[in-house]
Amino acid sequence: MAAKPQVRNAQDAGSAPDDRETHPVDETLPPLKMLTSGLQHVAAMYAGVVAPPLIVGAAVGLSGTELTFLTGASLFTAGLATFLQTLGVWKIGARLPFVNGVTFAGVAPMLAIVDTTDDKADALPVIFGAIIVAGLLGFLAAPWFSRLVRFFPPVVTGTVITLIGVSLLPVAFGWAQGPNPAAEDYGSTTFLSLAAITLVVVLLLRRFTRGFVKQIAVLLGLVIGTVIAIPFGVTDFSPVTEADIVGFPTPFHFGGPQFALAAIISMCVVMLVSMTESTADMLALGEIVERPADEKTIAAGLRADTLGSAISPLFNGFMCSAFAQNIGLVAMTRIRSRFVVACGGGFLVLMGLSPVAASLISVVPRPVLGGAGVVLFGSVAASGIQTLVKAGLDKDNNVLIVAVSLAVGIIPITAPEFYHAFPETAKIILDSGISTGCVAAVLLNVVFNHLGRGRDDDDVTAPMEPGEEISGSHTVKAAHVH
Predict the structure, then answer these.
(1) Separation CA 24–CA 33 (nearest Å)
(2) I want to staple 258 with a disulfide (CB 3.0 to 4.6 A). Which of 56, 63, 125, 144 is the partner?
């Protein structure tokens, strides 16, 4: 176990590139493996990227052509943000295998902005102006926000990672039931059977294949599931035949940004939520790839998120954040190279520049995505449980932290209307189970494991720096205060 801290410390000390390249995160894979693994990441997150622009664009009243343009712009800006996160520039980018894309946390407040804008033609410029300001403010705040990492020992990170997986599973279940919740065939046996078949195909490939085929089991499962869906009339190829070959997201296509105070405040709140979730995602991914995310890594990752968000509106895109679903793909395939994800970012850019290429991914039926999503998102939850095993759950305090935090984080999933009486601004935070569960875990950890330790040392697990291993002889000392 001593090797992992050495890799991290070598990075902090500015070691030679050869030292860094020994870690799987910095490996470059053979071209075919790089391309297919990168495409697998795109397939896993495509639906999440295109959903927000489709929802917001429809609310604004955009035509089909304009909706396609807005979707392509979101793919293009997601690719740029992914480049920032994986490859990095200066002190920007976590340099971890992170996929960035449009955060769904901003959908509700953006719809509220649309509703309160008299002239719908001004709605998107107002949204874009608010995102630019929120992104720049978040960029400036990133170094201070990253210092919260000291309050994320394994009992907190394990809880949050588990919540990420549990929060994503309903998305997979929704996909499995079909593309349109209002349709009569939503949740039909046909859709559920396709999801189940895809799930079984992925599991069989993972169980009975080896090497490269095993690592791209999800991608193969999506292809096989799509082919199986053709006789059922579920696979729609019309987006491919109707899409243009080339298209560029013209800067400020919908007009120059407008700056409205109420909209800016709303998107700043979303930015705080997004930064909280991104911090949790970085801690989760750091554990999975065995390169724990320290304060510098988180600060650099948050700078990439926020700068990507600030740049995105220039090309008609929305606020960007790390995609938790791709963490499940890294956990399952064990392909930890950040260059694989950067390759996925390249695909996203190309899809943004070529609508016909983007439409190829959209051919995959939603139930097929749902079947694969069960494996991906369940893998995230399993990784969280693995982290909790190391968190000292033999201590009563830690059991309480996990129990209450999970309960708080699951509220938006099991009781979606629980916070219906709260103001819309508050619901932006409360409706995110990851954010509420994360805040609850951090606060409870402070109360139980930081305050008054001298009165109950035998029952308290000391807070630790990220990546620090827990040993059976671990005891609490006054010197462990952070």
Answers:
(1) 14
(2) 125
